[in-house]
C-alpha cells in the first residue's frame, strides 16, 4: 500500500532532525566515548517506550549570524518513556547541535518537560551535555536557566530529580544538577565547574586540566557534588534504572512493594561480622547486606565521606534507606562531610516516604582544629535536624560503640526514633573508657605508685559499669537488647508497626535547617 505523502513528509522531517548536528559532529562525539542524545535516551529507557515532544521547535535568535541557521530541535530532546514500566520524563541535551548550548527555546523545551514531570508526578531525568548559555542569545539564555532553577526547587521533595552529566556542564548551568537529588557522572566524560581552567589561569595564574578541576572522580570523591560514579555511559544508565526501580515516583506514593527475598545468610553471617575487639574494623555494608532482602544494597555517594554509608535496600519487600557508620574508615566518626551526606539522604527518604534504618557503631564526632574551623558544629547540626524532623518510620540498631554526641545524633530515642535496639556488645556511654578514665580518675592515676596499672584498673572499672547496653536499657532509652541473629526479624516487626504512627509536628511554614 502506498504511503501517504504527508506521512512520508513527516518521516523525512523527523529523520532529518534526528541526525542532530550532522554526521561529522556525531563522529566527534563518538570518538570520545559519548553516545548521541537519542542513543542515550534509547539506552536508558524501556525499548520503544519513548515518545518525543517538541521535535520541530526552532530557535528565534536573529543576532550574531543566527538568522536562518538551522539548529535541529534547538539542541535538546525531550519526552516521556518508561523504566521497568514506570513513567519518567526525560530531557537530553544534544552536544552535536551548537554544543548543546542553551537558548530561549531550548530552555522552554526543558521547562515544559519539567512541568509535565511535576504535574503528572513522575521522576525527572536530565541528561546534561552542553557548552552552557548560548552566547548569541544573551540574557534570554540566562532567563532560561533561571526558569529551570525555579522549577528544580519547586519540584524538590515532590518528584525525584536525577541529573546525568555526560559532557561539559559549566558556569551557572551546574546549579540545575546541584538542585536535584542525585547526580550521576561518568569517568573521563563528565566535566562540571563554575569557571573553567582558562578563566582560572587568567584570574589566578593557576593551571589545572578540566579533568582535575571538575572530572567525575573529583565530584564523587572530593566535592560531594555527584552521587554515582560509572566507568561508561552504559553502566551509568544501569545505575539509574536500578535507582528508579527502588524509589517512589513522587512524594504521594510509596515505593513499589516487591516479593520478599531472604538475605544471603551463607555469605553474610550477621553474628560473625563484628569483631569482639572494639578497636577492630569491619565493613558495615556486610551488616546491611545481612539484613536486606536478597542482600541487595544500592549505595549512594559511595566514594565521598566513606566514614558513613548511605543507600537503599529492601526489608520484607519494602524500600528502606540505610544510614550506617563505617568502622572501616576513620573508625566511623562523624565529621562535616559525613554529617552533610547523611543529613541530605535522610531528608530525601523523609520527603519520599522511605523508612530509615540506622546502624550505629561510632566513637563520636571527629576532634581537631580542622574540623572545628570547617564548621563541624553547623554541619553536625544538620544531622540532628534531619533526623529530628523526619516523620517516616525510624529504627536504630546499635552494634557496638555509641559514644557521646554520636549516640544522640544517630537516631537516638531522644530524637524520637520509633525503636532502638542494641546488641549485647553495645557500649553506650558519654565517651570511650580510655578517655573517660583519664578524665574522671586523673588524680587517683597520678597519685598511684604505679600510674599505668591504676589507669588500666580504672579503665576496667569504667568499662564494667558503662561499656554495655544495660545502663541505657534500664532507663528505657533502648527498647530491647537483641542477639545479632534477631536483627532482621526485629527490623521487619518494627518497620511494619512504625508505619502506622501518626507523627505530629508544630504548625510552621518551614523550619530553618543549619544549611
Ligand atoms: C554557543 C557554543 C557554546 C555556547 C559551544 N558552542 N559552546 N555556541 N554558545 N556557549 C558551539 C561551538 O561554537 C561549536 O560550534 C560547537 O558548539 C562545539 O563546540 P567546540 O568548542 O567545537 O567543542 P569542544 O572543543 O568539545 O569544546 C567544548 C566546550 C567549548 C569546552 C564546552 O565549546 C566551550 O568552552 N564553550 C563555551 C563555554 C562557555 O563559556 N559557555 C558560557 C558559560 S556562561 P561549531 O558551529 O563550530 O560546531 C554560562 C552562564 C550561565 O553558562 C549562567 C546561568 C545562571
Task: Characterize this entry briefly.
By secondary structure, this protein is α/β, with parallel strands linked by helices. The chain contains 21 helices and 17 strands.
Note down, in words, how this protein is organized.
The protein has 515 residues and is of the alpha/beta class. The chain contains 21 helices and 17 strands. Strands 10, 11, 12, 13, 14, 15, 16 and 17 form an eight-stranded mixed β-sheet that branches. Strand 10 and strand 11 form a beta hairpin. Helix 4 (104-119) packs parallel to helix 5 (139-155). The model has no long low-confidence stretch (mean pLDDT 95). Bound molecules: hexanoyl-coenzyme A. Residues 98-99, 101, 131-135, 142, 145, 168, 170-173 line the site of hexanoyl-coenzyme A.
Task: Lay out the secondary structure.
Elements: H1 5-18, H2 23-31, H3 37-44, E1 51-53, E2 76-83, E3 86-93, H4 104-119, E4 124-128, H5 139-155, E5 161-165, E6 168-170, H6 175-179, E7 182-186, E8 191-193, H7 197-204, H8 210-214, H9 216-223, E9 228-230, H10 233-246, H11 270-273, H12 284-291, E10 298-300, E11 308-315, E12 318-325, H13 336-351, E13 356-362, H14 369-374, H15 376-389, E14 394-403, H16 404-409, E15 419-422, E16 427-429, H17 433-440, H18 442-447, H19 451-466, H20 470-474, E17 480-481, H21 487-498
Parallel strand pairs: 3-4, 4-5, 5-7, 6-8, 7-9, 12-13, 13-14, 14-15, 14-16, 15-17
Antiparallel strand pairs: 1-2, 2-3, 10-11, 11-12
Helix pairs in contact: 4-5, 13-15, 17-19
Amino acid at each position: 500500500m502506498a504511503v501517504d505523502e504527508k506521512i512520508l513528509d513527516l518521516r523525512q522531517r523527523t529523520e532529518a532532525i534526528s541526525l542532530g548536528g550532522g554526521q561529522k559532529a556525531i563522529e566527534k562525539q563518538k570518538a570520545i566515548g559519548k553516545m548521541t542524545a537519542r542513543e542515550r535516551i534509547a539506552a536508558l529507557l524501556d525499548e520503544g517506550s519513548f515518545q518525543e515532544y517538541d521535535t520541530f521547535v526552532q530557535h528565534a535568535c536573529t543576532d550574531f549570524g543566527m538568522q536562518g541557521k538551522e539548529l535541529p530541535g534547538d539542541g535538546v530532546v525531550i519526552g516521556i518513556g518508561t523504566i521497568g514500566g514506570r513513567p519518567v520524563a526525560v530531557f537530553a541535551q544534544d552536544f552535536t547541535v551548537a554544543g548543546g548550548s542553551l537558548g530561549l527555546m531550548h530552555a522552554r523545551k526543558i521547562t515544559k518537560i519539567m512541568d509535565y514531570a511535576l504535574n503528572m508526578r513522575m521522576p525527572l531525568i536530565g541528561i546534561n551535555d552542553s557548552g552552557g548559555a548560548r552566547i548569541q542569545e544573551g540574557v534570554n539564555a540566562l532567563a532560561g536557566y533561571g526558569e529551570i532553577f525555579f522549577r528544580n526547587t519547586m519540584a524538590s521533595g515532590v518528584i525525584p530529580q536525577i541529573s546525568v552529566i555526560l559532557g561539559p556542564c559549566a558556569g551557572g548551568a551546574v546549579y540545575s544538577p546541584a538542585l536535584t537529588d542525585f547526580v550521576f557522572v561518568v569517568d573521563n566524560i563528565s566535566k562540571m565547574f563554575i569557571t573553567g581552567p582558562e578563566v582560572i589561569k587568567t584570574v589566578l595564574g593557576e593551571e589545572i586540566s578540566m579533568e582535575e578541576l571538575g572530572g567525575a572522580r573529583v565530584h564523587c570523591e572530593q566535592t560531594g557534588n555527584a552521587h554515582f560514579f560509572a566507568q561508561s555511559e552504559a553502566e551509568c544508565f544501569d545505575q539509574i534504572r536500578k535507582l528508579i526501580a527502588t524509589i517512589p515516583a513522587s512524594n504521594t506514593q510509596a515505593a513499589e512493594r516487591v516479593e520478599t527475598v531472604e538475605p544471603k545468610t551463607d555469605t553474610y553471617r550477621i553474628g560473625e561480622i563484628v569483631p569482639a575487639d572494639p578497636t577492630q574494623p569491619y565493613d558495615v555494608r556486610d551488616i546491611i547486606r545481612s539484613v536486606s532482602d536478597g542482600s541487595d544494597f544500592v549505595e549512594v555517594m559511595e566514594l565521598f565521606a566513606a566514614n558513613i554509608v548511605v543507600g537503599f535496600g529492601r526489608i520484607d519487600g519494602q524500600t528502606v534507606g540505610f544510614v550506617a557508620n563505617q568502622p572501616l574508615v576513620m573508625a566511623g566518626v562523624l565529621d562535616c562531610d559525613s554529617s552533610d551526606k547523611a543529613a541530605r539522604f535522610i531528608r530525601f527518604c523523609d520527603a519520599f516516604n522511605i523508612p530509615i534504618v540506622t546502624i550505629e557503631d561510632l566513637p563520636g564526632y571527629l576532634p581537631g582544629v580542622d574540623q572545628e574551623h570547617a564548621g563541624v558544629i553547623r554541619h553536625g547540626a544538620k544531622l540532628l535536624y534531619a533526623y529530628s524532623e523526619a516523620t517516616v518510620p525510624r529504627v536504630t540498631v546499635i552494634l557496638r560503640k555509641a559514644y557521646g554526641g554520636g549516640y544522640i545524633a544517630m537516631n537516638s530515642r531522644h530524637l524520637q526514633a520509633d525503636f532502638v535496639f542494641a546488641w549485647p556488645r553495645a557500649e553506650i556511654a558519654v565517651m570511650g573508657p580510655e578517655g573517660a578514665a583519664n578524665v574522671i580518675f586523673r588524680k587517683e592515676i597520678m597519685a598511684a605508685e604505679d600510674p599505668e596499672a591504676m589507669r588500666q584498673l580504672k579503665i576496667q572499672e569504667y568499662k564494667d559499669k558503662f561499656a554495655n547496653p544495660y545502663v541505657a536499657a534500664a532507663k528505657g532509652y533502648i527498647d530491647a537488647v537483641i542477639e545479632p541473629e534477631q536483627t532482621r526479624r526485629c527490623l521487619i516487626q518494627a518497620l511494619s508497626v512504625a508505619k502506622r504512627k501518626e507523627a505530629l509536628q508544630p504548625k510552621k511554614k518551614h523550619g530553618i535547617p543549619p544549611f
